[in-house]
Amino acid sequence: MLPIERGLEIVMSTAKAKQRADWMAAEAVDLLESIHRILREDVFCDADSPRFDKAVRDGFAVRFEDLTHVPAVLTVIAESRAGAGTDVRVERGQCCEIMTGAPVPAGANAVVMVEHTERPSATSVRVLKAPRENEGLLRRGAEARKGDKILGSGRRIGLADLGLLASTGKSKLLVSRKPRVAVVATGDELVEVDQEPQAGQIRNSNTYTICAQVKDAGAEPVILGIGRDNFDDLRSKIRQGLEHDILLVSGGVSMGKYDLVENVFAEFGVEVLFDKIAMKPGKPTVFGHRRNAYVFGLPGNPISTMVAFHMFVRPLILYLLKAEKTTPTVLEAKLEASAKCDPQRASLVPALVRFHSGQYWIRTAPWKGSSDLVGLARANALIMIPRRDGTLEAGESAQFLFME
Ligand code: AMP
Ligand code: MG
Predict the structure, then answer these.
(1) pLDDT of residue 18
(2) Reduced to 3 states, what is the DSSP secondary structure of residue 111?
(3) What is the Cα–Cα distance from 275 to 308, expressed in whole angstroms?
(4) Which atom belonging to ligand 1 lies closest to the Cα atom of 204?
């Protein structure tokens, strides 16, 4: 059976070979719409940042040389407030009252916080604590210079980026177009969320988790509904699905008599590149492609579907979006209790991770297998247990992914 890494390599190399120039074109969006989109241009600072020597404290702009011995009394000669500076120059024995965000007047080289002063009179101030040179202020260009590249193409736009883009005057920017991802659930047993399951039926939950994962990865889900376990129904859903950038079909890919999805993929000429992965849960994961569409058959069990999406579909979406980082963030923790390995498959087990005295600690969460959403909902991570004999002992390191 194919190891996870090999499966991922196949997905990514297929995407590389298929990449067409017009794919995942860039589109201009308003700044407000750009959070978590993938930036498709380099962004340069439109001016020095800060634009002028700027106070970062409320207090008094001084010459630090005047304050080697404190307390010392200085003459207050002017005021500099945010939005309006002053033309005066601070000479020996003088200072200027100043507010956070205001320009530091010529001659001054430190700002003393108001908390470190007393006012004997309206025109004088007593400084109680000696400042260091450049304390309490930021020099022009200290953060970035005009023309510096501050964000690069491929960056997933985060919260700080949004503020940075605003401050450098980018009200519109180029981001990747969202791939359209068709989502099909399959199964005769499925009913919709607002319906009451009859004997032997269950509610369709995969459509919801998959759509959320699609959105979180930066793509646009298109719900095609539930396909029943017969050829006619599956053909009609899969035909529609193949018109999208990616088709995700959940369920119907295991060994059961009514698992017909792979047969229908074959009828439509989907080239299947793998249909089993040495992964637990998530073994019957199918990947293939046809013309301009990537196709996945995700295992029906709710946790298997989520894990398979996370390991294979998410990196593909991020690749199509031209994101600089496509793989999930893997962290390391110490095991609080032993965990059994499987010699056939790498396991991704719901776990509880916490940060304590400088490191992550992790233990498997109680769960009843790959359909147990109750167990998964109580966990906050997946431990990655390698494919091998034996056990990972308490105290050993293990890799994990956050899953929230
Ligand atoms: P299958 O791969 O179709 O045999 O499905 C495996 C298991 O996952 C079965 O117990 C199904 O009832 C369940 N399952 C399949 N699709 C869904 C879905 N959309 N939502 C919740 N459970 C599902
Ligand atoms: Mg089924």
Answers:
(1) 86
(2) strand
(3) 12
(4) 20
Question: Which residue, among 113, 110, 57, 55, has the nearest Cα to 85 in the 3D structure?
Answer: 55
Q: How many CA atoms lie within 13 A of 341 on its CB side?
A: 14
**Residue 252 CB less than 6 A away from ligand 1:** yes
- For 69-96, the pLDDT digits (tens) are 999 999 999 999 999 989 999 999 999 9
Q: Is 122 exposed, middle or buried (0-12, 13-18, 19+ CB in 10 A)?
A: exposed
Is 202 near ligand 1, meaning CB less than 6 Å away?
Answer: yes
302: CA distance to ligand 1 center in Å? 7
- Give me ligand 2 centre to Cα 6, in Å: 26
- The per-residue pLDDT for 20 is 67
Q: What pLDDT does 19 receive?
A: 74
pTM greater than 0.90: yes
Contact partners, residue 339, CB within 8 Å, separation at least 6: 349, 364, 383, 385, 391, 392, 398
Q: Which pLDDT belongs to residue 11? A: 97
Tokens of 160: 């700080």
| Strands, E assignment, 81-194 | 94-98, 110-113, 117-121, 124-127, 137-138, 149-151, 172-176, 180-186, 190-191
CA distance 292 to 2: 25
Q: Mean pLDDT of successive 10-residue segments in the chain (404 residues)?
A: 96 89 84 97 98 98 97 98 95 98 98 98 97 98 98 97 98 97 98 98 98 98 98 98 98 94 98 97 97 96 97 97 94 96 96 97 95 96 96 97 90
Ligand 1 atom with least separation from CA of 299: 2
- Cα of 139 vs centre of ligand 2, distance in Å, is 64
What is the structure's pLDDT at 65?
98
Q: What is the pLDDT of residue 21?
A: 58
> In 3-state terms, what secondary structure has residue 176?
strand
Cα 209 vs. chain centroid, distance in angstroms? 17
Residue of the CA atom closest to atom 16 of ligand 1: 300
Residue 197 beta carbon below 6 angstroms from any ligand 1 atom: no
Which of 191, 213, 371 has most ligand 1 atoms within 8 Å of its beta carbon, as the pocket-test mutant?
Answer: 371
Find the ligand nearest to 282 CA. 1
Q: Tell me which ligand sits closest to the C-alpha of residue 299.
A: 1
